[in-house]
Amino acid sequence: MRRTLRLYRRLLGAHLRAALQYEADFWIMIAAAAMTQAVGVVFLGAIFAKIPHLNGWTFWEVVTVYAMVSLGEGVGSLFFEGSWRLARRINQGELDYLLVRPYPVALQVMGSDVGLNGAGNILVGGVLLGLGVAHSRVDWSAGTVLLGVVLLISAIVIRTAISLGTNSGSFWIAGPFSVFGYALHQVGDLARYPITIYALGVRLVIGVVVPFAFASFFPVAVLLDRGDAAKLGLLTPVVAVYCVVVARWVFHRGLRRYESAGN
Amino acid sequence: MKKYMTLAKMQARAVLAYRLNFVLSLFALMFQLFAMLAIWGVLLGSGQNLNGFDWAHMKAYLLVGFLCGALVSQSADWRMAGRIQDGMVAIDLTKPVDYQKAQFATVVGGAWTEVVTALAVCAGVIAWTGAVPTPGWQGAALFALSLLAVLPLKFLIVYVSALACFYTQNYLGVHWARLVIVSLFSGALVPLSFFPEWVQQLAAVLPFASMSATPALIWIGQLRGAQALLMIAAQFGWVVALWLAARLIFRHAIKRVTIHGG
């Protein structure tokens, strides 16, 4: 376990140095990522200036849901960006190198790139999450703190597993771009808002089929004690385990189909 | 002129080869649109009116914003940036065409797919959520004129941001920075009248509102008559100003071109 973690850190370190070669763009990228998250909240603020709540959710409560996605995306970009390079690696036959190394292939894939924009997302997402929770009515106790930490970690695990699982679609869909992963990632952006605003079909897609809502809406509902959504939200850690199991299974099924490139 | 027409025609066919990339780039815009439609649907669905927008007018406003967003979204900038980054731009510079005009011709040639796809999405949204108000013939004429200005204007914003690649050597960060600035100040997702006074004043002196808010407000009838003409004049004014500014930037930027041996 310790060896696994140490090697993962080394792997990321190597890619971090590669990512730092374009210095000006690096700073612009972090600032742009942070701004993108912040502007989403500016939009919410502009809308909420005219109305008190959205389907019973106050401004800060919606910000909390939104921030969960920003934060989860940030962690995904900074530490697990490699998932998004999987399509290219399969297409170019580069997976060969990873297969012969004595280290879990899935982890090698996930650690094979660093998205520095993640730093901006984590910063803004973290601040927004703090502000959102502070301005929402939460019954704080040692229990809720512990629950909050478990929910946050589960949410991040869910997003990470979903991006590995959906990107593994590239084992079946040929091509250098991660079509399936990217398309579903955009669907996941719908989970930045309370999912009760959507039609039933959309809710089923982001709540059950690809459970993005368990990485944002449901955990927040638990913390705010929102009736049925809160009860479902208690399943978040279970959903996290389920996502990891499914993502691993899909990845390994896909790996068996991998047939390298001709040269 | 003829050589630029040829470039446009070439691109009009070439876009079909890259349709997957295009559809993917539209996906992000599409889901932003869906989320905003859902939010406004809840807020305005039961007959409310906020800042002069009821549900049908807000929907029309967002759909026009989507159409404008889809224009010039076909990674013309990535193509340019890639060639600047690997030095291939040197070859483009040796060709007996004006670089800026050639890039514009390419964008014009590819625009038809953007319009067709955006209209298909709009038709889908209307079929799903019901009709949107349409302007009278006068409004429609003003709208068409205004939309005509969006194409060169958006091209110029995209073009200038791609030129930044001469300085930063990488494009991803600049690309995102542009997207976020445009999405805020163009009023494509949330009408500018919803923002605090200072944001509105800032937006009024920037070119971005001309890229989306102006045609959208004309379509829903919030801008009409002389006022609409004034805003359209501002759009074309920006086109001229940015065209000249882009020339200046280009002249400075090509001094920084790095060509790798090989």
TrEMBL record, chain A:
Keywords assigned: Membrane, Transmembrane, Transmembrane helix
Organism: Luedemannella flava
Pfam family name, one: ABC2_membrane_6
Keyword Transmembrane helix among record annotations: yes
Membrane-crossing segments per the record: 26-51, 57-80, 114-134, 140-162, 197-220, 232-251
Protein name according to UniProt: ABC transporter permease
Keyword Repeat set for record: no
Domain of life, source organism: Bacteria
Automatic annotation (TrEMBL), chain B:
Keyword Lipid biosynthesis tagged: no
Coiled coil: none
InterPro entries linked: ABC-2_transporter-like
Pfam families on file: ABC2_membrane_6
Keyword Transmembrane: yes
Keyword list, A-Z: Membrane, Transmembrane, Transmembrane helix
Transmembrane segments: 20-43, 55-73, 104-128, 140-164, 176-195, 201-221, 228-250
Name of the protein described by the UniProt record: ABC-2 family transporter protein
Naturally occurring in which organism (per UniProt): Luedemannella flava
